[in-house]
Design goal:
This protein has 310 residues and is of the alpha/beta class. The protein has eleven helices and twelve strands. Helix 9 links the parallel strand 9 and strand 10.
């Protein structure tokens, strides 16, 4: 039986900000330094309300339609990327654009255009309505696949040239199942030389599954609108609980758990993890803290050239 006051916290490594998110947040901060407030951002710069609120206090304004931005204003495209028609509208409105699209998302945009221009029918595995998917679908006509049933509905001659791309923040395991079925249906299916699911998504999913083998419960700190955070919670099944912040912790679940895993989505700042850890440490008398996983990620991306930092 679990000793109510004795808990072990296992912090998953890696967790939190990835290189693309770090680049996007620093881009907004740097733009504010260079141009002063306000700086306008198309969509949330990353899917985390704490980050958005922090940048709002510094002078960033987040908008959806570009028509909400005064002509000629400094405008940042979020890490999720945008469709070409958004870029065209920005040019028409004479906006000073700084592109914070994650380079790994931009890679999928380029792949979609190249495959389509080379005569392929392009399939895209992703979530309908997600900002990243909307941007990719704007690059070329694609067939969106969200599940197995979507594959069954595809009616294409298998002798055609067919290529498959994926959203960068999907479940590694679920995507592998879909690609395996696609390959059975289309034996000559073309895939990018390197997979589209980003290194940070894969690393975090692999690490949290290992921690889940030892934990009674795993709290994933991240926004409900964050694809990679949702996939982290799903990766550990019934043990996983996605929480936006410590106020969403179910204390009954916490009381019943002896070993508590904690991780964070790629757009979640470290301070939110620290808050959850401190909450647990203050609630119980006997706390053991351990980090489990591999060393920090070395990947970095340079800031956009538009803000003068190479």
């Amino acid at each position: 039986m679990n000793d109510y006051n004795k808990k072990k916290i296992i912090l998953v490594k890696p967790r939190g900000f990835c290189a693309g998110v770090t680049r996007a947040v620093e881009t907004v901060e740097r733009a504010l330094e260079l141009y002063g407030a306000p700086v306008f951002v198309k969509h949330q710069i990353v899917h985390n309300q704490r980050v958005v609120d922090m940048l709002k206090k510094k002078g960033a304004r987040f908008v959806e339609p570009l028509s909400d931005i005064p002509e000629g204003s400094v405008t940042i495209f979020s890490a999720h990327g945008v469709a070409p028609k958004v870029r065209e509208e920005a040019r028409r409105r004479n906006l000073k654009v700084i592109d914070a699209t994650c380079p790994l998302v931009a890679k999928v945009h380029l792949e979609a255009k190249k495959f389509y221009n080379d005569g392929y029918t392009v399939l895209l595995i992703g979530h309908r309505g997600h900002q990243e998917v909307m941007g990719i679908m704007g690059e070329a006509p694609v067939i969106l696949i969200e599940n197995i049933k979507d594959i069954d509905r595809i009616n294409i001659d298998c002798r055609q040239k067919i290529a498959c791309l994926t959203q960068t923040t999907l479940s590694v395991d679920d995507t592998a199942v879909l690609i395996k079925k696609l390959k059975r249906k289309f034996p000559d299916l073309a895939l990018p030389p390197r997979g589209d699911i980003c290194y940070a998504t894969q690393n975090r999913q692999e690490a949290v599954k290992k921690v889940a083998d030892r934990a009674d419960v795993v709290f994933v700190i991240g926004s409900k609108s964050s694809s990679n955070s949702n996939r982290l919670a799903e990766a550990v099944g019934d043990k996983g609980f996605l929480i936006s912040d410590l106020s969403e912790i179910d204390e009954k679940i916490l009381d019943d758990a002896g070993v508590i895993g904690i991780t964070a989505g790629a757009s979640t700042p470290d301070v939110m993890v620290d808050e959850v850890v401190e909450f647990i440490k203050n609630k119980y008398q006997d706390i053991e803290l351990e980090e489990m996983g591999r060393a920090g990620e070395a990947m970095t991306f340079p800031l956009p050239a538009e803000i003068g930092v190479k």
